[in-house]
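Input chain follows. Return structure tokens only.
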Amino acid sequence: MTIQLSQAVKNHRNLPPDFWLDLESQGIPAAVIHSRLIGWDGEYVTIPIFSRDRKVLGFEYTTFDETGRLMVLPRERHKPYLYGEPILNLSPQEVVLTEGVAESLILSGRGWNALSATGDGLSFREEWAPALQKVPNIYLCFKRASESIQAALGIRELLPKARIVALPPEVGAGGGLFEFFVELEATAEDFRQLLKRAATSDA
């Protein structure tokens, strides 16, 4: 076991019970908290970043803001990683790129193959494109914000077959998958309908 994997396991074992409940209230199921080794280092909620060969590359450090929302702490001069990359070992028929690790965890908990750049989730490294281009169906589901839309359009230049998923206006300005699944209590089938609309749209 590598040092970083050992640290991830230790942090996971140290995750306080009330934090489990807080994460579940954010739409992240217990099964995902466990399988992704989400933990606690004594100061921050830690989310290990696994490479495609299941090595721990580093951690996302997160906390709960004043509204109780899980937020990733910014880290300057850290290159983004592709969170959820081991999913690609399964040769999935579809993947959904989300805006940020928290959003990808929410979607993963509802049965989708969700990926995200670490950090703010808006970056995309060109070197990730070849592996993703092998996936038959690629969707980009970012938040309802101009910066997010521009980021999704930029990613689609590297992944031309990717379809942009439009979340409904009810999520509000800047709203994302938390608002969709947790606040609006949308179902997995509701999200599937959004994917179907994206797949038949020229947007």
